[in-house]
Amino acid sequence: MRSRLPSIFHDGDVTWVRTGLGLQLRLPTRQPRQSSLRLNSRVFPNICPRSSNSEIRPIHITQARYFSASNSTYQRPNPSFHRRIPLNLPRATPPQSTTMAPIPKTMSGILIEETGGVEVLKWKTDLPVPELGEGEILVRNEFVGVNFIDTYFRTGLYKSPLPLITGKEAAGTIIAVHPSVHSTDPTLQEGVRVAYVADHAYAEITAISADRAAAIPTGLDTQTAAASLLQGLTALTFVREAAGLAQPHATGHRQLGVSEGPWALVHAAAGGTGSMLVQMLAAHGARVIGTAGGEVKCGLAKGNGAQWVVDSTREDVVARVKEITGGKGVDVIFDGVGKATFDADLEMIARRGTLAVFGNASGPVPPVDVLRLGAKNIKLMRPVLFAYIVTKEERAAYTKELFELLLAGKVKVKIHEVYPLQEVGRAHSDLEGRKTAGKLLLKV
Ligand SMILES: NC(=O)c1ccc[n+]([C@@H]2O[C@H](COP(=O)([O-])OP(=O)(O)OC[C@H]3O[C@@H](n4cnc5c(N)ncnc54)[C@H](OP(=O)(O)O)[C@@H]3O)[C@@H](O)[C@H]2O)c1
């Protein structure tokens, strides 16, 4: 008679729990004692319908495989037996409560009825709660991330139909799930904490497509998840796909035309996106130069991992960069400042360099005469996060990697200030006025 008692064993770096029913589950190596799982018919309807309430601890499942259905004793995993099985597992963060408050009809939020200055960000308390469409979930936002793009929609630089609830990212708790989601992703249940990059986040409640929700893993707090998602994904996708830098542990950076340790320059290196870029570039082995406005921000950029910092409010950036690189210039530039720095970028970039202009903090770069790129064979690009995370798989893979970097402490997020949602106008003014360093959040 096969035992139903679960037991745990190790195979190399991987920890497995064997259920005693021909199934083995892989546990993460990190913090395996943080959560528990009940092996009951709800979780494993097709595996152990009668083994109710046999609790195993510790467990936090990342992968499940059949082991050997016929074998009653322990054996090392044999890849030929492995196949994927459908599981109905809770995500990393289990529901906090099974009794959710009823969904209100109206909610508070920030509405833009006409484009303009910060005065057009209107606080409303009677906005209709969005209807739940097919494939969607409702999230009660706890923290909303402020991004420079929010100012572009406010001013009308980027067009959108009005009235608009803007805001591109938030983190909070699921309060309703459309029935169609149960079959596509049963782990998205009411009470689960999620972070997302999607529209209309400046509100108490947002309806998002379920495949945009990233369950926040145990060990990551909701505030950090909200503060890191959009800018962290931007930095990660840009370092990999725009600059073409390989995984941190891989060798060679051939796409940049250099053998190793490319010179990278990040403008606004103490800003939200800049801080993430500097940390990730440094982790990828780049020699990072950061520019920042003022002494305090320069200190922060250095703390992020920039080996050299140039104070853009006092120093001649081009001359300093040439001096630091021995006259060569930098192999890759990440420029979210835009109009004010574009011409200098062309001067301080190395031959065959990659210039990634990805923002308009000082205004959009005017149309460019491509003949200017020929003298040094410069690769000019205008990367956008949203075009790198189009598919569910792309979003999931990059988000997983970002969360792992955060959980491992390899990437940190500095929060400039948490503003009440009602004070979003002050947050926009501070961001546009170069008064901030790190991430701005809104507390709902
Ligand atoms: N393409 C994408 O997918 C994508 C994604 C995320 C962000 N972005 C872009 O990345 C840039 C940074 O965004 P963020 O949200 O992380 O903001 P941020 O960097 O935290 O703040 C903007 C910083 O830009 C610098 N800056 C220089 N000149 C400026 C000017 N004239 N006006 C305002 N700021 C100026 C300031 O830093 P110093 O004082 O240190 O110079 C300021 O603190 C923005 O252009 C944004 O649109 C693009």
Automatic annotation (TrEMBL):
Q: What name does the UniProt record give this protein?
A: Uncharacterized protein
Q: What species was this sequence derived from?
A: Chaetomium tenue
